[in-house]
């Protein structure tokens, strides 16, 4: 015959005896991030060179068209890395493709919600601050986009860094080919450029980066923003636009 101390109930009591308060809620643990470096190398990344320039007419944004795996293999030659997210604003994709696409979808939804609730467009400064807050606190993997737009206060170009920093400038470049693109852009930029002039400068800067940066290439997408809207068009042949 078993003693009470050998019973299943006794065993349960013994297990609970080490717990200071068995009635407190049990706190679960977050799932572990099991991503390895090999996994990260197989994430589709834009690599990228992206440029934003303020002009007398509005804003010009230019990006290359290449996506790669780990910067070594070209996984797509026709990636549109600039998307309209505002009636007179657009954002570039830099970093992981999935993170950038999710970031753009989220911002676009917030802009639509703002317009529906208030009956007016969000200012570009407010949109930039919102983008910075999302980058800082959201689940968006390794992004560094450029936001460009036109509102009542004029033309704006912002760089949004991965930690949520928001910096406005007359022109900016992000991505793996930024140093190469800046070399041409610094020499060519002038105040009071027209959109046509800025488009040529931006395209030439993208071409300069594509010559040496393995993460950039396969053509250029050009985005022209004015107070009338956003126009995006792609060119696989640089000679068409430079």
From TrEMBL:
Q: Name one GO cellular component term.
A: cytoplasm
SUPFAM superfamilies attached to this UniProt entry: N-terminal nucleophile aminohydrolases (Ntn hydrolases) (SSF56235)
Give the chief site where it resides.
cytoplasm
Activity regulation (record text): The formation of the proteasomal ATPase PAN-20S proteasome complex, via the docking of the C-termini of PAN into the intersubunit pockets in the alpha-rings, triggers opening of the gate for substrate entry. Interconversion between the open-gate and close-gate conformations leads to a dynamic regulation of the 20S proteasome proteolysis activity.
User: Which keywords appear in this protein's UniProt record, sorted alphabetically?
Assistant: Autocatalytic cleavage, Cytoplasm, Hydrolase, Protease, Proteasome, Threonine protease, Zymogen
A molecular function annotated in GO for this UniProt entry is:
threonine-type endopeptidase activity
Residue ranges of the region described as Disordered? 1-38
Entry keyword annotation includes Cytoplasm:
yes
Q: Which residues form the active site?
A: 48
Under Pfam families, the record lists:
Proteasome
- State which Enzyme Commission number(s) the record gives: 3.4.25.1
- Quaternary structure note: The 20S proteasome core is composed of 14 alpha and 14 beta subunits that assemble into four stacked heptameric rings, resulting in a barrel-shaped structure. The two inner rings, each composed of seven catalytic beta subunits, are sandwiched by two outer rings, each composed of seven alpha subunits. The catalytic chamber with the active sites is on the inside of the barrel. Has a gated structure, the ends of the cylinder being occluded by the N-termini of the alpha-subunits. Is capped at one or both ends by the proteasome regulatory ATPase, PAN.
Q: What is this protein called?
A: Proteasome subunit beta
Q: Which gene encodes it?
A: psmB
């Amino acid at each position: 015959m078993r003693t009470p101390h050998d019973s299943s109930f006794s065993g349960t009591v013994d297990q609970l005896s080490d717990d200071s308060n068995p009635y407190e809620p049990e706190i679960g643990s977050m799932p572990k991030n099991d991503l390895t470096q090999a996994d990260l190398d197989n994430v589709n990344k834009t690599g990228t060179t992206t440029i934003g320039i303020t002009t007398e007419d509005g804003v010009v944004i230019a990006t290359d068209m290449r996506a790669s795996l780990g910067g070594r293999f070209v996984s797509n030659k026709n990636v549109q890395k600039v998307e309209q997210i505002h009636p007179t604003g657009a954002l570039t994709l830099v970093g992981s493709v999935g993170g950038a696409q999710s970031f753009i979808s989220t911002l676009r939804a917030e802009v639509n919600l703002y317009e529906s609730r208030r009956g007016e467009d969000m200012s570009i400064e407010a949109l930039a601050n919102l983008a910075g807050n999302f980058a800082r606190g959201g689940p968006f993997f390794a992004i560094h986009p450029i936001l460009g737009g036109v509102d009542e206060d004029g033309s704006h170009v912002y760089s949004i860094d991965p930690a949520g920093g928001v910096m406005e400038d007359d022109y900016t470049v992000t991505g793996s080919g930024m140093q190469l693109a800046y070399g041409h852009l610094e020499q060519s930029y002038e105040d009071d450029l027209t959109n046509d002039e800025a488009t040529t400068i931006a395209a030439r800067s993208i071409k300069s980066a594509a010559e040496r940066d393995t993460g950039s290439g396969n053509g250029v997408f050009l985005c022209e923003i004015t107070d009338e809207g956003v126009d995006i068009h792609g060119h696989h042949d640089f000679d068409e636009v430079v």
